[in-house]
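Exercise 7b. C-alpha cells:
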C-alpha cells in the first residue's frame, strides 16, 4: 500500500509539474502577445505622433508665411492709403480749380468782348492797312464768341492772336493790290506800307501816287517828285529790286 501510494504521489507530482509547465508556457505566450500588441500600439502611437509633428511643422511654416504676408499686406495697404490720400488731394485741388474756372469765365468773357470792341475802334482809327482783312478778322471773333462749341480758352487764344497780328502791321513792309476813292473815282492801285509810318498807293499804270493822311482820314495825291520813289518802294516790297534808300513823304513825329 505504501509503494502504491508513493507511486501515485509520484505520478500526481509529475502531473502537477507537467500542468504547471503548461500553464507557465500559456501565460508566457499571452504575455508575449500582449507585449507585441503594446509594441504595435506604441508604434502606431509614434506614427501618429510623427504625423502630428509633421503637420504641426507644416502649420508652423504656413503660420509664419501668413504672418509675413500679413506684414507685407499691411505695408502695401499703408502705401496704397498714402497714394489714395495724395490722389484725393489732387482731386480736391482740381475741383477748386474747376470751381475757380467758372468764376474766371464770368470775368474773362466780358473782358474779351471789351477787347474786341477796343480792337474794332483801333482798326477804324488806324492807318487802313489791309482794312478789309482786319474787319473780317474782327467779325470772325464776334461770330466765335457766339459759338457754343468753342471753348472759352480757344476764344481767348484767338482774341490774343488778333492783337498779335495788329502788332505785326506796325513792323511789316508789304505791298498788295486794292482800290481807293480818288475824288469819287474808284482806282485800282498797288498799296505799299512801311509799318504804320507810311501808307502809299500807286496806280497800276504807275502814273499817279497817293499818300494816306490819317488825320484827315483821306488820300492825298503826291507830286511827281515822289512818283519814282513810290514805284521803287512797291518793287522793293515785291522783291523785284533790292532794298535801297528812297524818298518818301513821311510826317514828322509830334
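Sequence design result:
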Amino acid at each position: 500500500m505504501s509503494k502504491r501510494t508513493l507511486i501515485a504521489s509520484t505520478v500526481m507530482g509529475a502531473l502537477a509539474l507537467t500542468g504547471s509547465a503548461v500553464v507557465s508556457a500559456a501565460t508566457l505566450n499571452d504575455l508575449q502577445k500582449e507585449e507585441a500588441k503594446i509594441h504595435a500600439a506604441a508604434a502606431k502611437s509614434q506614427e501618429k505622433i510623427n504625423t502630428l509633428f509633421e503637420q504641426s511643422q507644416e502649420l508652423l511654416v504656413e503660420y509664419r508665411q501668413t504672418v509675413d504676408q500679413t506684414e507685407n499686406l499691411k505695408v502695401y495697404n499703408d502705401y496704397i492709403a498714402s497714394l489714395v490720400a495724395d490722389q484725393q488731394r489732387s482731386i480736391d485741388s482740381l475741383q477748386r480749380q474747376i470751381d475757380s474756372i467758372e468764376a474766371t469765365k464770368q470775368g474773362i468773357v466780358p473782358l474779351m468782348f471789351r477787347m474786341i470792341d477796343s480792337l474794332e475802334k483801333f482798326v477804324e482809327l488806324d492807318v487802313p492797312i489791309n482794312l478789309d482783312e482786319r474787319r473780317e478778322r474782327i467779325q470772325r471773333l464776334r461770330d466765335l464768341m457766339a459759338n457754343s462749341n468753342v471753348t472759352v480758352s480757344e476764344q481767348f487764344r484767338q482774341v490774343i492772336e488778333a492783337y498779335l497780328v495788329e502788332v505785326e502791321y506796325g513792323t511789316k513792309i508789304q505791298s498788295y493790290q486794292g482800290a481807293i476813292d480818288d475824288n469819287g473815282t474808284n482806282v485800282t492801285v498797288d498799296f505799299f506800307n512801311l509799318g504804320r509810318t507810311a501808307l502809299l498807293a500807286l496806280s497800276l499804270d504807275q502814273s499817279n501816287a497817293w499818300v494816306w493822311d490819317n488825320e484827315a482820314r483821306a488820300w492825298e495825291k503826291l507830286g511827281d517828285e515822289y512818283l519814282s520813289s513810290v514805284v521803287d518802294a512797291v518793287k522793293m516790297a515785291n522783291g523785284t529790286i533790292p532794298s535801297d534808300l528812297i524818298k518818301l513823304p513821311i510826317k514828322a513825329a509830334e
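Instructor comment: Residues 93 and 99 are 10 Å apart (CA to CA). The helical segments are 2-125, 131-145, 152-169, 227-238.
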